[in-house]
Amino acid sequence: MAQMVCGERVAIVGALKAGHQEQKTAAGLAGNGGLVELFTGDAGSWTLLLTLPGGPTCLLGAGQDWERWKPDGGNHGPQDTSMPATPGDSY
Fold first, then answer.
1. Predicted confidence band at 31 (pLDDT cuts at 50, 70, 90)?
2. Fewest beta carbons within 10 Å, which of 26, 51, 82, 85?
């Protein structure tokens, strides 16, 4: 079993931006109060992070070939990482 990679959120997010040109494209709260964030890059890279309340930020997963999907099932493709302006807007 691999050891989980954890550290300070500012350093990890900075490394994702500098090394992979990834930015946050989605986020939500986990049942334990942790912040789950998805970072994606224009080239299709992705990283999933969990930041615990008052604790470290940990890498949950990372990979390539991320594709964004519309709520109706249509594909935006790897280049479109934009988020809607408000929760009711369509993708």
1. very high
2. 85
The two three-digit tokens of residue 52, written as one number: 């615990």
Residue 80 pairs with which residues in a beta bridge? none
Token pair recorded at residue 9: 């959120």
Q: How far apart are CA 40 and CA 80, in angstroms?
A: 10
pTM given for the model: 0.75
DSSP assignment string, 4-70: PPEE-HHHHHHHHHHHH-EEEEEEEE-TTSPEEEEEEETTS-EEEEEE-TTS-EEEEEEES---EE-
